[in-house]
Design goal:
By secondary structure, this protein is mostly helical. It has one domain. 87% of the residues lie in helices and 0% in strands. It has helices spanning 5-34, 39-64, 78-106, 108-125, 127-161, 163-182, 188-205, 207-230. The longest helix is centred in the middle third of the chain and has 35 residues, at 127-161.
């Protein structure tokens, strides 16, 4: 059976994101460390600048292959904003349970402790890193990810394979993207849980809503990390 155009577009965009992010976050960060640049600074610059560039390249590809801006679901309004906020509240509850599963399966607590120690030293030495982390990880990266993964990929897969399959496959691919780039499975349950939530919110209320949810979850989580590291 011939592969559909929708699946082809989704596949290229997924592969493109993974390859580009891996090159930037692994290749560029390693190169920065080799010349004496703080690796966290390079990583956070990738989040703040590299992610929007990746999203722009892949969005241009999607437009060039038949997708339209209207299909991305960026309709803003009080309803989309409100549902995004409500979904974020639900997301924190789901995340608490998913994190317990990750801790039991993959030792998430030990990994998080080591990560917190690393950030504490870096943020104390360079407070500007904390601000860049909040902006990049809390705001910019979620917007770029929602545009590509829910706006482009999920749109194509839902149109071609139906709602359940489209949301489910997108969620799995989104979680696997993090596993590949992070070279770690310790957050797998949490990532899958949030990815399904984002997918449902996007399908029901639009990408604007899922972006609000994603930004709130990331920003509050990032702010908590900064607070623990610096206070």
């Amino acid at each position: 059976m011939a592969r559909s155009k929708s699946v082809e577009i989704a596949g290229v965009v997924v592969a493109g994101w993974i390859v580009l992010e891996f090159l930037l976050r692994r290749g560029l960060v390693s190169a920065a460390a080799a010349v004496g640049v703080e690796p966290l600074l390079a990583d956070y610059l990738v989040l703040a600048i590299g992610f929007p560039l990746i999203a722009a390249v892949l969005s241009r590809y999607a437009l060039g292959h038949g997708q339209t801006r209207n299909s991305w679901g960026w309709e803003w309004g009080l309803r989309s904003l409100g549902m995004g906020v409500l979904a974020a509240v639900v997301g924190f509850g789901l995340l608490a349970g998913a994190a317990q599963i990750d801790a039991a399966l993959f030792g998430l607590e030990e990994t998080s402790g080591a990560f917190a120690e690393e950030l504490t030293g870096a943020f104390e030495a360079t407070p500007a890193l904390a601000v860049l982390f909040l902006v990049g990880n809390g705001i910019v990266a979620p917007i770029a990810e929602e545009q590509v993964w829910r706006g482009i990929v999920q749109t194509e897969l839902v149109d071609d394979r139906g709602v359940a399959a489209g949301i489910g496959v997108t969620a799995v691919l989104f979680a696997l993207k993090h596993v590949i780039v992070d070279l770690s499975i310790v957050r797998l349950t949490s990532l899958l849980t949030l990815a399904v939530l984002f997918g449902i919110v996007r399908h029901r209320w639009g990408t604007a809503s899922s972006t609000v949810t994603h930004v709130l979850l990331n920003t509050i989580s990032s702010a908590s990390i900064v607070a623990v590291a610096l206070l």
